[in-house]
Specification:
Layout (H helix, E strand, L loop, with lengths): L2 H4 L3 H9 L2 H13 L10 E3 L6 E5 L2 E5 L5 E5 L10 E8 L6 H21 L10 H6 L10 E7 L31 E4 L10 H13 L6 H15 L3 H10 L6 H7 L4 H23 L4 H12 L3 H11 L5
Parallel strand pairs: 5-6, 6-7
Antiparallel strand pairs: 1-4, 2-3, 4-5
């Protein structure tokens, strides 16, 4: 079976993890309210990230769209005078130097969709002032605020822009006149989040261990395995940590084994990743198929049969 058919891709693993309302609420409480339990899981409702979702609000339907990793609407709460809030979560595995603009675009799309849905109600000028009709919006109409949190899972410290101003070459005398757009960024490798959900605590602790580039690989591996055994870390957390590090997970195989542990996940995915790298490098340097197979066996200490399997799965040419 082809690899992409039996494996879960990293982005799918991360989306599935944050789809859980308790984890999602805990993350936003940590980022927005320093861990205070302001957002409750039962207040959250998933929105479709690909197509319009219709919501009942103030006696009329509003369509909302956002091209997000995860997006939820906060309902049933009037804290801070807000009845509805849209919360978006983005997962980032590399430093995107245009990320503030991307977040701004996501948020604008959500606002624009709300405006379009609201404006569709006003097809006639009856009951509206001239400016309201031309605007397709009444003076009293209000939209839902949108908040986006970006979680970065890379090993390097984020050295990109964290706001629109950071991306602009602005003369100091004009800075206060140029509108800024700040993004909420969480670095998985090191942060001061006050988390209460134990899955989230384990996930970020585990990622801090795995993303510590100052330690030898063997020490990182030992510490990660020790942490998962000592804490009896949930399988979903282990899979998410692997996904965050861009490892594709053979989930069906793990399920059949009935026991998912850090060694199984990271050792198997590490070997597959290394095999793919050896094959690609061999092709780049013009090595023959036999030479590449020999390098696979020697560098990974695997059997000829296993080398053939990896070559069939990851090779650009057929053995």
């Amino acid at each position: 079976m082809a690899r992409n058919q039996r494996n879960l891709k990293p982005d799918i693993i991360l989306k599935n993890y944050w789809r859980d309302n308790a984890r999602f609420a805990d993350l936003f409480n940590a980022v927005l309210f320093q861990g205070e339990q302001v957002i409750q899981p039962h207040e959250l409702e998933d929105l479709d990230t690909e197509s319009s979702t219709i919501l009942e609000h103030k006696k009329h339907a509003e369509g909302i769209t956002a091209s997000r990793d995860n997006i939820k609407i906060r309902k049933k709460s009037t804290a801070y005078g807000i009845e509805f809030v849209m919360l978006g979560n983005e997962s980032q595995e590399y430093i995107d130097y245009a990320m503030p603009m991307r977040v701004m675009g996501y948020d604008y799309s959500a606002y624009k969709k709300q405006y379009d849905s609201n404006a569709a109600k006003y097809k006639k000028a009856e009951g509206m002032e001239e400016d309201e009709y031309l605007s397709r919006m009444k003076r009293t109409d209000r939209f839902m605020p949108v908040i986006t949190v970006t979680v970065y899972y890379g090993k390097k410290p984020w050295d990109g822009a964290a706001s629109l101003h950071d991306m602009l070459n602005i003369p100091e005398a004009l800075r206060k006149y140029v509108n800024d757009y700040r993004m909420l960024l969480v670095e998985a490798r090191k942060n001061n989040l006050v988390l209460h959900n134990m899955n989230n605590v384990d996930l970020f602790n585990l990622l801090e261990i795995l993303l510590d580039s100052s330690r030898p690989a063997g020490e990182i591996r030992s510490r990660a395995i020790g942490y998962t055994k000592e804490r009896q870390v949930d399988k979903a957390v282990i899979l998410t940590a692997a996904g965050a590090l861009n490892n594709q997970i053979d989930y069906n195989a793990l399920e059949q084994k009935g026991d998912v542990n850090m060694f199984t996940v990271f050792e198997e995915t590490r070997i597959e990743g290394r095999a793919e790298e050896i094959i690609e490098t061999g092709h780049e340097f013009g090595l023959s198929d036999d030479d590449i197979l020999g390098r696979l066996q020697k560098k990974l200490d695997i059997s000829p049969e296993m080398a053939q399997r990896y070559f069939r799965e990851f090779g650009k040419r057929t053995v």
